[in-house]
Automatic annotation (TrEMBL):
Annotated family: Belongs to the yippee family.
Signal as UniProt keyword: yes
Record's keyword terms, sorted: Metal-binding, Signal, Zinc
Entries under InterPro entries matching the protein: CULT, Yippee/Mis18/Cereblon
One Pfam short name: Yippee-Mis18
Annotated PROSITE patterns: CULT
Domain of life from the UniProt record: Eukaryota
Protein name in UniProt: Protein yippee-like
Signal peptide (UniProt feature, chain positions): 1-21
Organism per entry: Manduca sexta (Tobacco hawkmoth)
Domain annotation CULT: ranges: 32-155
């Protein structure tokens, strides 16, 4: 019970602190909905920055209506240990990138990856992918793959557990 109250309080404080710090821009939000860390409620991304970056390694790709947007590409990716992740790709997200860049087992050929963690609580949010060849014109240099199970929309009417 204490844990649930603690999470609710953190979510409330996080949302109110964001509102106070960004009150001048809050009415001019870039996107449809903010994405929050499911563990602590910190603001980690804006749905405006969702984009489709197909992975040739995706086991399943489908379109869903998420975070105030229609036809968001959701990919099911499986790591070498057999763990499944439903992922959306973002041009921008607030992440602490953990560890050195890894080239092995990247779901996106030509991109290295690092763990993307919530800057507030350290929760694993997904991965940051960076291009191995930054010289190529009209090429995306970096993006994020956020795990749907580890984020929620600010308008979600659900409990954080």
């Amino acid at each position: 019970m204490f844990y649930l109250l603690h999470v609710i309080l953190l979510t409330y404080l996080s949302n109110n602190l964001y509102s106070a710090a960004e009150s001048s821009n809050r009415g001019e939000k870039n996107g449809q909905e903010l994405l929050l860390c499911r563990k602590c409620g910190a603001d980690v991304a804006d749905s405006f920055y969702i984009f489709s970056k197909p992975s040739p390694g995706a086991r399943k790709t489908e379109k869903q209506n998420l975070f105030g947007k229609q036809n968001v590409t959701v990919q099911t990716l499986i790591n070498p240990f057999g763990v499944k992740f439903e992922v959306v790709t973002m041009e921008k997200a607030r992440c602490d990138n953990i560890g050195p860049q890894q080239g092995a087992d990247s779901w996106f050929p030509g991109f290295t990856w690092r763990i993307c963690a919530c800057p507030h609580c350290g929760q694993h949010l997904g991965w940051t992918f960076e291009s191995s060849d930054k010289r190529e014109k009209d090429h995306i240099n970096s993006f994020h793959g956020l795990i749907l199970a580890n984020v929620l929309g600010e308008n979600c009417k659900c409990f954080i557990v």
